[in-house]
Amino acid sequence: MTREIALLTNPTAGKGRGARVREAALTLLHGAGWRVQVLEGRDADEAAELGHKAVAGGTEALVVCGGDGMVHLAAQVLAGTGTPLGILPAGTGNDAARTLGIPRKDTAAAVARLIAWRQRTVDLARSGDRWFLTVLAAGFDAVVNERANKMTWPRGQMRYNLATLAELRTFEPLHYELDLDGEQHHLRAMLVAVGNGPSFGGGLRIAEGAVIDDGLLDVVVIGPLTKPDLVRTYPKLFSGTHVHHPQFSRHRVRKVSVACPGIVGYADGERYGALPLTVECVPAALQVIA
Q1: 240 burial class (0-12, 13-18, 19+ CB within 10 angstroms)?
Q2: Which stretches of the chain score pLDDT less than 50?
Q3: 274, containing H or E segment
């Protein structure tokens, strides 16, 4: 079946992989008879504007080619519109694609998933007028993100690993105030993360068990750890087995407020805003092709 879609690309994603994935995808989509409006903004603001215009013009889907940053941008454009989101993964972390089961390393397979056109309705998290799909990092994880995003080398997960080791030298537990559906908590913790989906940082399953269409947010707290214990626990994030640590706790809520002095939250790997932040789950806010 012929489709008319808009394809919005970050050509620099994945050290240039975005442009390569786009060209390979266009060949396959044109071969399937699809008509594709190719979009590429000079910066995030222009890319968002192009996305809004495509949706207003009646595109059947907004497909992004890039990493979690492009998915984050698309969420701002598509939330509540009913226009579906397609993803061609080409970034560093690709946690949104991982959460949705979209092939991350095989462009042909990702395009085939797109052509199959199976839609799914998922939740989004919202703070004010900002949306996110995966996880809000608001502690040690956010500090690591802040450092990793300033690094130009190495690529991929190793960048986050090195940033983690660098921050370990000086990091101390933080003082948090949480409001969990009206229930107040004051605590010290290494981090608080708010998960709409389970993973961030290229496969770190911080909110293991989070479900993207259950109408709830998973608020994860990891209490004070010694630096050696944190080093031992970190690898368990890739398998989700950190949930068995005695300092791990999870709260499933519809709304959470997180306050902690000096911390900037990251969502979908993007700088999201300084704490305090209030985040709520908005059920069925986004249509995805996945």
Answers
A1: middle
A2: none
A3: strand 270-274
Give me the pLDDT at residue 156, please: 66
Cβ contacts of residue 151 below 8 Å, gap of 6+?
159, 162, 163
pLDDT score at 163: 83
Q: For the CA atoms of the chain, what is the radius of gyration? A: 19
Average pLDDT over all residues of the chain:
93
pLDDT tens digit sequence for 115-144:
999 999 999 999 999 999 999 999 988 888
Q: State both tokens at 134.
A: 């995966």
As beta bridge partners, residue 259 has 177
Distance between CA atoms of residues 198 and 205, nearest Å = 5
Tell me how long the chain is.
290
Q: Give the separation between CA 50 and CA 252, rounded to whole angstroms.
A: 36
Domains of the chain: 4-117 (3.40.50.10330), 132-284 (2.60.200.40)
Q: Determine contact, residues 73/50, Cβ cutoff 8 Å.
A: no
Q: What is the pTM of this model?
A: 0.92
Q: Which amino acid is at 269?
A: G
